[in-house]
Structure formats: structure tokens, C-alpha cells
Amino acid sequence: MSARAIRTIPSKCLRLAWLFVLLMPVARGDDPQQATPDQTGPAALKNLSLEELSQIEVTSPSKEPTPAFRSPVAIYVITGDDIRRSGVTTIPDALRLAPGVEVAQIDGSKWSIGIRGFGTRLSRSVLVLIDGRTVYTPLFAGTYWEVQDTLLEDIDRIEVIRGPGGTIWGPNAVDGVINIITKSTKETKGVFASTGGGNVEQGFFNFRYGGGGDGGDGPTYRVYAKGFTRGPEDHPDGNDFDAWRGIQGGFRIDWAGGGRDAFTLQGDAYKQEDGEQVTATTYTPPSTQNVEGYEQLSGANLLFKWKRTLSEGNDFQLQAYYDRTNRLEPNLGEDRDTGDIDLLARTKLGTRQELLYGAGARISDGRFDEVVSGLVFYPLHRTDYLISAFLEDDINLVTGKLMLTLGSKLLRTNYAGINFQPSIRLMWTPDDKQTFWASFTHALRTPSDAEDDFYLSSFIGETPGGTPIFARFNANPNFAPEQLNAYEVGYRRLIGKNLFVDVAGFFNHYHDLFSEDITGGFSIQTTLPFPAPAPPPTYLLLPAQFQNDLYGVTYGGEIAPEWRPATFWRLRGSYAFLRISLKQALTKEIAIGPASDNGSSPQHQASFDSSFDISKKLQLDLIFRYVSALPDQRVRAYSTGDARMGYRLGKHLGFSLVGQNLFQPGHVEYLGDPGGPVAIKRSVYASLSWVTK
Amino acid sequence: MGGISRALPVLLACVTALMLPSRTVAQTDLEYQVKAAFLLNFAKFVEWPSSAFTDSDSPIAICILGKDPFGRAIDDLVQGEAADGRKLIVRRTSQLPAPQACQVAFVEGSTKDVAKIVNGLGRGVLTVGEGGSFLREGGIIAFVIENRRVRFDINQTAAESAALKLSSKLLSVARSIEK
Q1: Among A235, A335, A638, B136, which residue has the least CB neighbours within 10 Å?
Q2: What do you get for the CA distance between the two ends of chain B, in Å?
């Protein structure tokens, strides 16, 4: 196919999308529900049970102001229904639905995710929680996105906070917070089963059974299992290394023990094999080679939560969890146990103030397996701890109209001393339909093993005499926390009954930001600063270190309108603008300059989607997205789109057909694998689902 | 193959445009149809003291106080229904009803002075309102919209002081229960 043909598709589609919008007034006021009175007419509603009535969708989320509408942070809520209707099959892909989040797929099982910049494979300054469990790894500082999964149908919502988010979120909430919340088991009774497959999503199954709650107050539960096998993405060199397969299962029990107390116990376990290609560097020959193999990933977690309501506005919650992760990659291995306990309480002070406070402690024990001498954490076994506390005061200056929030986090880790992270937020709600807010936050990312005790080597070449030359990032026990001062403003408005607009702007000032510095000249070495399976030959070393030598600003904004022209049709758009301008603090040679951060995030991102109920049985969802170029990743701007058609075959049985990345056979979103760019394929899958209530 | 797959999104968009449903007469919002069905169900899952009725034959009256968002939908729904041997009827009133005239009282969300109305109704009336603040004003059941669905919260203290017994079924479906 010609390149010209590919380029004309987006504009054609945009034109059609606009045609779509223009046709809209014709449909206004129509109600397709009326076309099938047997389903939802008054007579039919009469025969539905209370539970069934609770499941009927009646309105757009914007109609009744949600808590998110009235919060002084840039928050976007992806609902479970949004996820289902988008046709995505992974949590990283679901995050594309939120404005200001940069999601770039590196290969079959890896993503770079950033919020307001700084997208990397591990998203080091984004805090990710699943039902209150932090999934941040202190080894490389960040989130291994490929193992963060659950039954997508059980996700109630994903709250995405752009910016530092405030006081009560945990450590490392600097650029943003992603809070994945699953449904209560009260809402997942009965059987759900689905299965399907396609060209990339080769085959999958999902199963859940939920029950209990007999007699009103009894405990409710669910169990689930899922499995998938995914094919490789498109590799120009024909080296299809990134196939991916996995299984996962879990359970959850909820019990509201007589009203005052609520208990939750839940757990998951998973096992995966992710194909990857990595550079294996060794001080002994062959010095460097690209190795392919399957990462063996497994893990399990168990979480317990107890919430007691003392009176209205006075409650506390205790949460404890244990998490185990095992990774064995072709060039490294790690086993980690994490234990965490958190207490969170809320107290009303008079009629105008609400106090939120809490404390937590985490201990994380990691055992590193050295596979190659070019990538070593030393000491191999270490235990890290973190103690945190926070206090936040919500003060109603003018009841219902003007609220001031003051708060601070205190954080103590074994990497750095006590850190103080204050925030101040002001929210003005002149009426039910508008919210203005502004905030200042000081936030920081604590150092991790990746700076503190990490030795990363790369082979540069050989001298004419045959001596190997290596550059090595040596461990930096003096790495300081990365710091952010964030200034944010936002405005939300409900216009009429059906149009909702959310606008946010930010100016972030970073200092002590992560840098990759060369720390000296070449020297002849015969030893290594860590134990290796074999002694190194004489080599030439260029020493380097991860330091805190970048500073600078980022600024930008996001706008996300949502319009519900009719009960059966929702249109959403979003546009995010971002500028990153970082500089190096010291005039010394820098291995990878600030351009890496400056040029690895898109300046412009836009999306447009339509969710349309053609009839009670047939749904059509279309998503268009545009991402501008990433010069430092050598990624060109791209536009692509997804489409989903859902058809209800009967009371319990549904069918859906999903196409993803439809505009081109393949497009590159991010570099990151040693073998060169991987193109994310156009993909199609079909699925059948069965639900009982 | 390339040509067909390139045309797919365009085709899908066209299909949607052509399948826009034909015009029909606008009727009661689905939200209020569902809320009306809930009101009917509430009547079936609540036990009233006999003092709430004038006599053993008097019906269970679902009263809409003030603004009526239901229109004919609720009449169609309640038509011919009975609970606990009593006929169900719908009444509309702009004034505070007389004692024993209403067993279920629905107060629309934009109504002012809700606390006054709720207090004025007294015992034996199941008060149903809209939005989170209704329970704080002394109401018994409040409809809330959550995740695009109609849910409801219950204030059990208010139910008890109104001498009403709510079935465990009702309590188990409620989104939250205040005590």
C-alpha cells in the first residue's frame, strides 16, 4: 500500500466524525429505549427485581455531580463501563482513556507510561495502587505494568490524578496517581464468563463466580480466573521475540458486619511468561550480546481491610497487605516480599472542619540474582523500609462554597531522612454546576535501589590493542530525593444537563532531578566493585553515576469535554498540551542529556470517542487518538483508532468484535528494546460472554 | 486486504450514521421510569404499622409531593398492583398531606425546605428523596446516581423512628445504610 493512502485515512475519518456530529440534531430527543418497550417500558420494569433495577443505566456520569466533580485536583475517572466499551484487554491500554496520560507501547508486553511527561518503562514518579495496595517496586523505582492485572470486568473504576495529588496518597506520587478500584462483591454476584481470540490477542478466557449475602447482612464473595496468550507485535527484522502468556486467579470477600464495621479480604496470584530481548553485558567475552528469552514472572498478594464508622463523618480504616513478586529475566532475577500496614482516620471538628490523618509502615525485602556482570544490584540482599504519616485539614470557609485544604506528608525511608511534603488547595463552588480550584504542592520521589546500589555497565568498544572499554554507572548512596513544586489550577463546568467540561493547567518546577552523569576520565581497571562469577580481564572504564543534576520546568494543560446529546449516545474529546524544559545544573559532561526527558513525551495528544447504543441490543464504540512525535525516541506523530461492536444475543449471551490500531498495519510508539523499534500491530479479536445475575 | 482493512473505520462510522434511530415521541426519562419502579418495590418491602392507615381496607398511597418528574409512567406502573393485601395508588399533592393520607412520600430533588416537609409528615410515612443530602434532612430512603445507575441509601434510624420495618431484602440491595 502507498504511504499516501495511509496518510489520508485520519483526515477521512475526522471528516466522517464531524459528519457524525452534524447529523446529531436529527437524533436529539430520540429515545431508542422506547423502540423496545418490552425491555424497559414501565410494564417491563414492574417485573424486575431490586437488583435488576440497580443495574439499569439511566444517565451520564456528569448528570449528578460525583465526588470527582468537587475535588481540588486534576482527576479523571475511567469507569468499568468505559473500559468494557473501549474493548481494551490490559490496564495500560485502559489508561489511554484518561487525558494527560501518555501511554506508549514498547513491545508486546511492555509499556512506557507517564503523566504530564516523564514517561518511561517503569513510570518512576507515578504512584499506582490496586485496591489500596501499592504496586511500586523499589528495585528499579516504578511499576512493572505487565503484571498489574485483574479481571477487567471487576474493575469499578480507575481514578487517574494528574499532578502530585495531595497529601493522603502514598510516597512517590509526584507526577500522578493511578488508583485502580475493583467492585464490591455485592455487585459481582452470579457467573461471568467470556472467551475469544484474534490475531494479536490469540486466545483468552475470563471467569468469575460471585455469591453470598443471603439474608441481607451475610458476607458476599467472588472468585475469578483468567488466562491469555498474545502473539508478537511487528518486528521489521523478523525477530518475533515478544509473545506473552499468563494466568491469574483471585478472590475477594466483603462483609459489612452489622453496619458499623466493614471487612474486606482479597488476594490474587499470577504466573506469566513474557518474551523479551535484552542486552546482556559481561566483563568477560563476549562483552555484549542481545539475548532473547522468556521472563518468568509470578506473584501473589493478600490484603485485609477493616473500616469502622463511628458516626457520620467520623471513621477509621486499617489496611494490611503482603505482596510477593518473583522475576527471572534473561539478564537479572529478583524475589521480593513486601509487607505494609496503613491506618487512615477521619474526624469532624465542629461544623466547618474535617480532619484526615493517617500513618503507615512498609517493609520490602528483595533478593537479587546476578545473571550478568553488567547489571548488578549490590548488596544482593537488602531490606528497605518506609514510614509515613500525614495530616490534612479540610476547612469550609464558606459552607458549601469555599473550601481550603491544608496538609502535609511526612516520610522517612532508609534512603533519605525525614521529608516534609506540604500542600495547600483552595476550591470554590459558586453553584452546583461549577468548580474552580487552585493548588500548590511540594512533592518528592524517594531514592530507590536503582540509584542507591545499582551498577549498570555498557560495552563501548575495544582499544586497538584489544582491551575492552566499558562505561559503568556506579551506585550512588548519596542520591537525593527528586523534588517538585507544582502549581495547578482547574475548572469544571456542567453546561445544561448534558455537556460537561473539565479544564486543568499546571506549572511544575523540578529540581534535583535524576541525571546520568559521567564522573571522570578513562582509567585502567582490573577489579569490579561487586562480586562476579569470573574475575574481569583488564579493562578501560569510563565512570558514570545517576545523580541529581537536572532541573527545570514543565507546563501545560488538559481539556476534556464530554457531551451526552441523547440517552443512547455519548461523545468525548480530550486534548493535552505539554512542554518540558530541563537543564543540567552543573557544567560537566552528561552521558544522556536533558533532551532524553525533553523529547520522550508528546507535546500534543488528542482523542475523540463516541459510544453509541444503536438499539437495546447493538452498541458501537469508536475511538480516535493522535499523539505527536517523540524526537528523542525517533517516534513520528501518529493517529490511529479503535472500534468495538457489541451485540446482545440473548438475556445472558453477548458477542463483541473489537478492532484496535486500525488506521495502519503497524505504528511505533516508543523505543526501548535493543533490537530497534517494534511496530504495534493492527489487531482484531472477537469475544463471547455469558453473564447471569 | 490492505484496502479493505483501511476502509474499516470509515465503514463503521458510516454504518453508525445510517443506523440513527427514527424519531419517536419523547417520554419520561428512563431514570424516572426506574425510580418509579423502585417506589413500587419499596412499597412491597416495607411493613407499616396499622396506625399508618385509616382502616384495614385503605390503600397504600404513593404520594408525589410538589414537582412530579414521573408523569404517566408511575400511574401505568402502579395500576393494578397490590402489596400485603392493600391496593396501591398514586396521589399528587402540592401541600403537606393529612395524616394517614400517604404511606410513601416522594420529594423531588430540587424541592426546598426538605427538612420541614419530612418533619411535617410524621410517623408511618416512608419518605423517599433524591441526592446525598436527603438523609441528613431526616429522610428514610435517598436515590443516588452511581455509575450511571439508580441506587439508594437508607437511614435506618429515621425508618425506626417512623415506626417502619424495612425488609432485609431492601437493606441488602441498598448502597449504604446509615444507623
Answers
A1: B136
A2: 64
